[in-house]
Every structure is written in structure tokens, then in C-alpha cells.
Amino acid sequence: MKAILYIGHGTRSKKGANEAKQFLEAVMGYVNAPIQEVSFLELTPPFIEEGFRRCVERGATEIKIVPIFLLTAGHIKQDIPDEIAPLHKRYPDISITTTEALGVQEVILDAIAELVKRHLAGPIFSADSILLVGRGSSDPQTRIAFNQIAEGIKRRLTVSSVDVCYLAAIEPTFDQGLETITAKEKGRIIVIPYLLFGGLLLNEVQLKVKQKQKLGHAISCTDSLARHNAIQQIVIDRANAEGERYAAVNH
């Protein structure tokens, strides 16, 4: 029997955890699988081992792992496979496959542009600028991906500039990015947190944007990306896809 095990990142924020769970509950209603379970890599229970065990207890003979992560980095390449490997040994008769991270997709860039327009509730001007804020990773592919994202957003919104900064692991930091973009501001500054759900990281971004607002800067912040239904549709499509759309886990 086929099962889907969704894996989110996890957060210490109760609000962020609830947002992720509600998102996945909505997804599950559109996925054609008799068994579906939600789990998280860290911080938020149930964790991967428990979610996997629940699938087995409900009669799963094949489990598709669907990670709810924006980009391919250490969690996708190392942490999740490390969690799955001992489960394969414990349940050798269970077929295990996994989908990829959401990646840099045109539909996601379209959704970001729409979120910005919805946030501004009016026209975007060429003097406006964007600060794209990533979670951050030491994986070298992270910078490559964010350069692609920045270029795609700039094409769609025709703003004067799109700067990139990160919340952890690599520079420029978010604080550095804020200082740089406010020093050269000509029009409005729109901060885009490249985060799927709310949580402590989004709270940090919003707080620092408010501090800049109090100093008189014309700066504002968009919401988490999962607020756009395009993200939900991508996850639904991944979960419903047949075997050629995803790769086997290395055992």
C-alpha cells in the first residue's frame, strides 16, 4: 500500500509549526494516497522516525518521502538521508523513494512577484528595490540558486535592484543587507523573506524591518511564501507524481 511521508524543517515557534501543519493538511486533501503522514526534521514533533513508523503501522508497503524544503542543501543531501537510512534497515521490505526540494522554478518566481504586488496593493516603480533574504547554507549551490532567484525577480518586477542576503552561515548577513540597501534607497524597499512558513526567522526579519521603518525608511516586508497557492500546488504535484518524477533513496 502506498504512503506519503511529508518532511518539514521544524521550528521552535508554535505559530510557525501550526502554519506548516495546516499547509500540509490542506495538501493531503488533494493527494491520491491511502496513507499520508506529516513529520519534521527537527524541533517540531512528530519527527521522521515516528512519521515513518506510523506509515508502516497503517500498512504501508511503499513510502514516498516528500521533503518540504525550498532548495537543495545540507538537509536534503545529508540530514534527511541520514535519518532514512536506519529506517530502511529496520524495515527492509518497505520500498522507499524521495522527491527533490522545490528548487528554483518559474512558477515560484511568478508567485513571489505576485506576492509583492499583492503586498504593495499598487504599482511597482523602477526606483523601488528588493532585498531577498535567504535562510543561508554553507552549500555552494545556495549562492548560485539565490543569484538565479534574484535575476528572475528583477525581470518580473523591473525594479532598480535586487540584493541578496542571508540569515545564517554565509554573507552578506541580513543586517549587512539592510544597511546596504537603505543607504542607497531611492524609492521603496521591499524585503522578501525566502521562507516557506512563519517562525522565529520570519519574526526576526519583520522586527528589523519595523526598526528601519521607525527610522523613516520606506521599507516593508512580504509574508512567507507558502501563503501563495502555487507552493501548495507544487507539493501536491510532487506527492501525486508517478515514479519517473522522483529518485530512489540510496541504501
Automatic annotation (TrEMBL):
<dbReference type="GO" id="GO:0016829">
    <property type="term" value="F:lyase activity"/>
</dbReference>
<dbReference type="GO" id="GO:0046872">
    <property type="term" value="F:metal ion binding"/>
</dbReference>
<protein>
    <submittedName>
        <fullName>Cobalamin biosynthesis protein CbiX</fullName>
    </submittedName>
</protein>
<keyword id="KW-0479">Metal-binding</keyword>
<dbReference type="Pfam" id="PF01903">
    <property type="entry name" value="CbiX"/>
</dbReference>
<keyword id="KW-0456">Lyase</keyword>
<dbReference type="InterPro" id="IPR050963">
    <property type="entry name" value="Sirohydro_Cobaltochel/CbiX"/>
</dbReference>
<dbReference type="InterPro" id="IPR002762">
    <property type="entry name" value="CbiX-like"/>
</dbReference>
